[in-house]
Amino acid sequence: MGLDLFSDVADLTAEIVDIESVSGAEGPLADAVEEALRALPHLAVERDGHNVVARTGLGRAERVVLAGHLDTVPLNGNLPSRVEGDRLYGCGTTDMKSGVAVALRLAATVTAPARDITYVFYECEEIEAERNGLRRLAVTRPELLAGDFAVLMEPTGGLIEGGCQGTMRAEVTAAGERAHSARAWMGSNAIHAAGPILDVLRAYEPTRPVVDGLEYHEGLNAVFISGGVAGNVIPDECVVTVNYRFAPDKSPADAEAYLREIFRGFDVKITDSAPGARPGLTHPAAAAFVAASGADVRAKLGWTDVARFSELGVPAVNYGPGEPTLAHTKGEYVEIPLIAESERRMRTWLEGPTTVAA
Q1: Which of the following is catalytic: 34, 62, 125, 341?
Q2: Residue 148 known to be catalytic
Q3: What is the pLDDT of residues 160-194, one digit of tens each?
Q4: Does 11 qualify as catalytic in the annotation?
Q5: Is this prediction's pTM over 0.85?
Q6: Using the 8-state DSSP alphabet, how is residue 96 labeled?
Q7: CA distance 237 to 193
Q8: By CB distance 3.0 to 4.6 Å, which of 39, 67, 98, 285 could disulfide with 334?
């Protein structure tokens, strides 16, 4: 399972894809990554569970972080990898082993960068947040994630996606009173009472805030609905679970206040929440990355781990060769020319001039 970090980046991507690493079972891939990085004398390497962190220590005026997760969603008959024309197919090709391959190639071949670099390869991004390896490092070893700027190698189709939106789930409950369905007038049907909740959702007009020059697109949708206890009982409760995707100019407290206001009169219970992250593109290190890469910039509409860097005070963007709309699909693939282009653009930035005088 040895990885050749000096091979062509597309070949390296295929090697990484062919090491199965479904969430929770990243051990073999983490072992291969650690072994390959420890062979490089210009890097100091640390292992934490199935997280692998490698750092240069050149005393540069800036430090940047390149991060990527090692895990994939469960297989769907899409291993081993295969090449068809300019496409590399296989589980994780887009999300995000092509990005990991780019970072590993850079770790091996950029030995004297203009800025110090921390490479973070982490576990369990595709499952519950409590197991996320980057989250654990942020809590237990935040010094390993310190830097002036971070790039999360998430699939973006070769564009730079600034920041990310926040996400919140809430249970909105309509109450009723049980009765025998033959004598429905003696009770109050909670499912019928949930109609106004659905009316709010149907009438919702998504806002499109512009934050630091990027346009975001908010969303509010029902994702679950539950109610009823038996076929002959008028239900006394109906719960509509809604998911609110909010732009990074709002805090989770702002988002919660908004949900409680629009669903006034109903019980609202927040069950899950994660803050967004502002693009941070005005930061000099971020501006240097945009300028050096030459890539176009757009807003990140989903939630990603850039939010964890934002909470640590490190501005971050998403940038990777994979196409995000193909993530988690059976026919997942990555365009091979985009992998090489991502490597070239990242190399230009890492070896180019810094924004802070040495």
Answers
A1: 125
A2: no
A3: 999 999 999 999 999 999 999 999 999 999 999 99
A4: no
A5: yes
A6: I
A7: 9
A8: 98
